[in-house]
Model the fold of this input.
Amino acid sequence: MSGFARSVWIRLFVAFVVAPGIVGLPASARAGEGAEYRTNVGLAEEAIRGAVGDALQTYPRGEGVVRVGPLVAADVNPLVEAILVEEMAARGIPLVVASGVDSVASSGAAWFAASEPVPSEARLQFRVTDFSFRYTDVYRKMVLGPRRIRRLAKVDLHMRLTLPGSSLIVWSENVTHSAADVVPFSKADILETKAYAFAKPERGQSTMARLYEPLIVGGIVGGLVFLFYSNQSGD
Done:
């Protein structure tokens, strides 16, 4: 192979293989600097907080103290209850937590322990109709770029308010909210946790990645071998 032909091949190799891999790296990775990312639980909390906030927009005021608790058991209930209590207290809604809370909300809202007698106590109950947290895709932005994970948390939440000593529902709301982002694959271990089953989902790989990655690797290796022997024969 002539020197000109080798030069063309080298330029093509750099332009279509090496350069995309470099461009695919984020600036922070090239500089060796880290970045802050939300944990999986943090992303789930964002979705739940969005759902709770949407529901409370239509919540009726003037109902007095309400007792908060779940309608049915669910693994994510502790997160939902904690965020619901926080958001209600921030809005000045007096409440009692069914599981018992031995403190008073710092916002100034009346927040009593469940063991204390509360007159005219309405009930605010919630049901997590559906909740999911998953890695929707594992991919590379460019040919040789670092792998990324696209995360999605989604919650369907039902809330209802019943009058004191009655099963009469005076308010209800059904809301759906989701939160999504993209994080480096290398960060997945430190963003996951065993505290909740959902926070450590299966790391799949996209169908396209399974198809094209072996071809790309084979092409790179073949190109390097071809350039090496071409250079040897030219010399």
